[in-house]
Structures are given as structure tokens and as C-alpha cells.
């Protein structure tokens, strides 16, 4: 397929706001692509080159891309900057430059490059490193664009800055793959299961296109490819948890209770001698935790996938530290020094693969038994999560209080006879956290949408309040709260610095905000915050008809991406839990 043809499909998607139409367009695109290029086109359509966990980044900011456009069309940089300030969109900017200045020589050659050719050139640009690489990247991108038609250039310039703006996610891709063959979503469950256990959407698309649904049904976890983590649900009380989880299992009675740590979710892949560590949002964090890499290599198994929580601790007292302190270990530079200052323990609570055999379909009780065997020998900073079997509310409450006293968030309750449901949020796991009287049963992870300029004392901060929202099933983000209290002076300053990195000139298209709540400054959907509130109330002004009452910032969630924020559906569940 020509890249120009792919861009025409993207333009079709751009013009529709209907999820069903998007799915139908993707199905047509996938039908037209051949097996050898569908993985490339899928990743490009998601605004990237490789799966998230491979971490391939362009490292070209908007200012650099302005220089790319200026060089491609031989225009002064300040002229392109002025145009970009006016349009607020590099894609529109490059289109206007193309119309004004493009050479008419060899018009038939413009847009003649294939998807594979463009992809390979983009990958080479992204992987260029070392002295002078930024200048080389600018020139190589300019060379690529100046030989393109205007439509192709419009979309291509958005890819290096992670802003393709087509408005769909991997889940829509899975729908499109099902529609490609069946004309409906009937194969979506099989495709989603495969993606959940092998989180490489390009690979899933390629295998499906090449070998069909039977191959997809046989896909298993692979060492080095992250499994999408299982998530927990919420219930309002110990009574409800025991009622939901406390049935009698043939081997044991009750359900398992473990601590709920306030750290970084990690998935450790071991294929000796190689060790890889992935975050909850599938980023590769291996280089950030050298002590864990060394400890993992000591385990008495050749190949393993472990699920656990990384928490920093005080070297002198052994006391577990806060999430904010643990999050300081997420860094590229100064890793060795920070590892000495903030050592890490990983509490391991699940085993997903052992010596080449996948265990995700096995009941939790069996996975735990196998985990206890390989964790019986101390392995540096890896520690087996303590577990107790509980059958009554009194014991459950006691354990929650015990773990809270130790500095944890509360407890996690798990059914004994259930498999590991990769990527799912269900009642196989239920969290039971500390709740103060008059507060919600859980916090909300919300996306920062923009902010309002400060008045009085906050004039000096440059920010006086901020707007947060949550995503719906279509990827749109709707407002749920305007927050102007509860932050310390330091938190206001930090929020302003964080927002400054993602400021945009106009409200992002995916934002659903009443005009009475329009922000003074909008930001791209990049920042996730943890918010506590007294309750969720009905609202005539907020996008989904619900709002947070007395919201306040708990912390910044650097370990989460916007698509991992609390969803509209989860917000509605929390609203209903209030009346239980």
C-alpha cells in the first residue's frame, strides 16, 4: 500500500465522530493491507513505530518539527512559527506551507512511497543517536516531507510528537480486525484475549491477517512481551467482600488476603540470563532497577513471569516509603546513585509463567503454590507477599487495619479458584482500602485538562485552579471537577511546572467541557492525578452528568497514562456504591 493511500484512510477517520464508522473504515483498511505491512500500518495509525514496551521515541519536540517544515519547504523558521501559533496544529501548518511553496517538478512522484518504505525511514530516524543526531533527524525528516504530497505530510508530521489525533485506541483496532472478517464484533473477545496476554497489537494484527482466528486463539504469553495486568474492583464494605468472595473452594475455604502496597506495579520477565521489568502501562523499566534485575537472576528457574509491587524503603530502618519517594526511582540518569539512596523491594504476589509453561489459566491457589516454591530461597530485593486465608469480616477488618498501620493502603482480596484475567477488571480481585468517614470508597484517577489563572496569592503561581476529567468508552475525556483548594503552595508550583510541558493553544478535540468551565490554559491529556472527594453528585454542567463534591489532590500518578485513568463506567459504579 502507498503511504498516500494510508493517509486517505486516516483522513476518512478524521472526518467522522462515529465509533462505528471508524471501525468500518479500519476494517476496509485492514482488508486492503497485506500481511507483511498490516503491523506497520497499525502502529503508525496509533501514532508510533513499535509496541509501547520497546520504547522507540523520536525525541523531536514541536519546535524541532517547525524547523523540519521550514527546511522541507525552504521557508523562514519564524514564518512557520507564526503560522503554527495561528493554527495550533503542525498538520494544518504543513498543509498550508505545501500549498504555498511546493515545487511542481515531478508531481507524479509525490506520494509514490509505500507504507513500508516510509515506515523504515521513520524507524531509522527515530533510532539515530549520538553526537549531532538531532540535526540529522531534522534534515532527514525534512527530506522525507518535501517529497510527499500534502495530505501525507499532514499526518506524518504529527507522528514524531505523538499527536496523530485520530481518536481511537487499540480496542478500536481489535474491533476493526473483527469487522474485517465478520462484519461485526463477534471475534473481538478472542482478539482482546490474545492482546491481553501478548500486548503487541501489531503482532496480533499480523498473525490474524496471515493465519486467521485459530492462530489468535492459540496465542500465549511470551517472555519479553508484557501481559496486560489484571485489575481489581471495589466493594463498599467488608461484609460485601466476604459475601462476594467467600464461597467454599474444594481445597480451601474463604479467599486470600494480601497487603495492598502503595508503590509501582511491576511485571518481571526472566529468561536467563536476560531480565526485563515492565510497568503497569507496559513501559520498559529494566534500566531503572539494577538491584531487582540482579535479584531476579538468582531465582531457581530458567524462565519466569512475575507480578508484583516495587516499593522504596529506608536503608537504616527498613520502613517502607511513600509512593512519591518510590516514584523517584523512575529515571534515566543517575540510576546508581538513586538506587543507593532509595533501595527497592519488590513484593511478588503472582506467577504467570514458569519454565516455559503458562500459568494464567490455572486457579490462583495453584499459581500461589508454585510461586511459594520458587520464592522459598531468598533472592535479594524480591520478597514473597504474605498471604492469609480469610472467611469472616472480623478477620478481614483486622488485616486491613494491620496493613494500614504498617504504612500500606489496605488489603487486596483474591478468589482462590480463578485464573489470571489479563487486562480485565473484575471481582476476582477486590481492594479494601482505608476510608475516612464522609469520603468515597476509593480515589479517582483523573486526567488534567487545563487550568485557570490565579488570583491574589496564587497570581505568583500562575495557576489558581485546574480542571480534571475521565475518559469514556470512545476515548473522549469529560470534565468531572474543577479543583481550587486542598493543595499546598509547593503542590501548586509543581502542578504549574507539569502543566507547562503540555500546554496547547486550543481545547483538544477529545475534551467534553461545558463553555462555562472553559480553562484559561488547556493542556494535552498527559497528566494523571489521584483525587479524593467526599462524594459523587449529579451535575447539570459536567460532561457525564456526574461531579466530585469537595475534590482534593492526593498525588500525581506518574505511573499511569490517561487511558489508565478511572473510566466513565467506573465513575458510575462508584456513584452507585454510595447508596449500597
TrEMBL record:
Tell me which Gene Ontology terms the entry assigns under biological process. cell division; DNA biosynthetic process; DNA recombination; DNA repair; lagging strand elongation
Q: What class of enzyme is it?
A: ligase
Provide the E.C. number(s) assigned to this enzyme. Answer: 6.5.1.1
Record's keyword terms, sorted: ATP-binding, Cell cycle, Cell division, DNA damage, DNA recombination, DNA repair, DNA replication, Ligase, Nucleotide-binding
Specify the ATP-dependent DNA ligase family profile domain's residue ranges: 337-460
Instruction: Please write the reaction equations for the catalytic activity of this protein.
Output: ATP + (deoxyribonucleotide)n-3'-hydroxyl + 5'-phospho-(deoxyribonucleotide)m = (deoxyribonucleotide)n+m + AMP + diphosphate
An example molecular function term from Gene Ontology annotations: ATP binding
Among InterPro entries, the record links this protein to: ATP-dep_DNA_ligase (IPR050191), DNA_ligase_ATP-dep (IPR000977), DNA_ligase_ATP-dep_C (IPR012309), DNA_ligase_ATP-dep_cent (IPR012310), DNA_ligase_ATP-dep_N (IPR012308), DNA_ligase_N_sf (IPR036599), NA-bd_OB-fold (IPR012340)
Membership in a protein family = Belongs to the ATP-dependent DNA ligase family.
Q: Which NCBIfam families match?
A: dnl1
In Swiss-Prot or TrEMBL terms, this protein is called: DNA ligase (ATP)
Q: What is the lineage of its organism?
A: Bacteria, Candidatus Beckwithiibacteriota
